[in-house]
Amino acid sequence: MNRESGLAGIDEAVDKLIASGATQIIIAPMFLANGVHIQSDIPEEIDVLEKKHPGVSIKMAAHIGPDPRIADILVERIREAI
């Protein structure tokens, strides 16, 4: 766990995937904003993990971002609650 950034679980999850035989890992961040986790924390964590696990490809997919479909989902959830 990267205690400074609060990104609990990335290193543990990667370790488990590698232990099960994974050689390619994609981290899919579930963030709406392009903040410090997307710009710095996760890429830095990936660098550490790649050094720890040479021969394993670890990449980060694009974050969710301001996708207009999110507004549609929110409207749907609000209507369901009414």
Automatic annotation (TrEMBL):
<dbReference type="GO" id="GO:0046872">
    <property type="term" value="F:metal ion binding"/>
</dbReference>
<keyword id="KW-0456">Lyase</keyword>
<protein>
    <recommendedName>
        <fullName>Sirohydrochlorin cobaltochelatase</fullName>
    </recommendedName>
</protein>
<keyword id="KW-0479">Metal-binding</keyword>
<dbReference type="InterPro" id="IPR002762">
    <property type="entry name" value="CbiX-like"/>
</dbReference>
<dbReference type="InterPro" id="IPR050963">
    <property type="entry name" value="Sirohydro_Cobaltochel/CbiX"/>
</dbReference>
<dbReference type="Pfam" id="PF01903">
    <property type="entry name" value="CbiX"/>
</dbReference>
<dbReference type="GO" id="GO:0016829">
    <property type="term" value="F:lyase activity"/>
</dbReference>
